[in-house]
Amino acid sequence: MTNDKKLVQCEFGCGVNVYYQTVEFSDSLEIPIPREADDSIHNCPNLDRDELPDVFTPITDDQDLIDEFCQNADYLWNKEEIEKHYLDLDSYFAGIDGLEFKNYRDDFKKFLVKQLGIIPSFYSDITLYGSGDTLPGCLNDDMEAPPGYGIFPPIGLLGTFYEMDGNLPDAKKCYKIQLEMSSSPNFWSNKFEEVNVQCEMKEQEPLTKKYVEKESKKPQTDQQTENSKVEEELKKMFLEIRKFENGDFQEYISSKISRNELKEKLKKDILRYRFVIEKQTGKKQRVPYTMYDKIKTYHAKDENRKQIRKNQTDWDYLSLGEKISFLDDKIRNKEIKKLLDEINDIRNSLSHSGDYYPDAWLEVFADTRLCIKKCKDFFEFDVKSDIKRI
Q1: What are the b/e assignments for 16-44, b being 16+ CB within 10 Å?
Q2: Are residue 259 and residue 194 in the same domain, yes or no?
């Protein structure tokens, strides 16, 4: 990325001073990003496609300022040109086909980058739909939108194209920029983290391969026996945490939160916002996507696959960390909150593959078992206190 921090007036006449940061991609495409003096990405009010002004010069009675703007401007825009920009974007992404093929996506990327380089409409969503009511799954982003529709912010769409290419570093650049502008930070933060993890894994692949080749040449040793012992202890610790989660912790949760209260909490926990196209009017409507909606999606998937657990409740679809967060206002003991977070951290560590420090796990597991015991003792005490208060 390259920056030219020389501040100039926004060329679309809103009166804000901006500088341009050039974002370069590995395929030689590049986009100038307008940023304000505080480094935030400029959202020009004059580029709101629903409220375009008639003139793109500063709104002021000072004729000298207007003359200065006109003299320094490389080009003076008019309303028809901006309208044509949006019309071209709408038309280009309407009735599209073949986005599952990279050579097709390359054409769309080049067009999108070209348009954004001329008019930086980063805050105006793009609607795309397939010619046969079909789009690749990652582009049909809203399960309540009609089949074959996808609604994306421009830089988020570019990042999705790069991710489809397998070009993770460039996708990561786009998602990081989109995260600065997004009204749905959780969604784009998750996208950024997913790609970031994949990038780190790719960087580790050569080292992992080299390590595996080296280890495969070693004879069986006492160290390998010790590793087997460690693996058994890891499994044992994981099962102890699962037993705590589904036993004492689950019973404590049930005593603190009723089903109706849980449902209301789930409905208020907004993960991101999505657009729904109303069938009658065809207009886009921005609606929240909550934890409750996410759980309903899981329920719907469960109807189409073989079940291994009986009578699953909404709680069963939440992670341990999510369950702890829902109890935040119910537990006033800060130490217990901290202990629960530590248990969750260990559970997450054990859920992922990787090597462990051989000298650390004994001490950590001992501390974790102590955390579990303290929490169980607190739960028993707190429940009895609630009964006495009743």
Answers
A1: bebbbbebebeeebebbbbbeeeeebbbb
A2: no
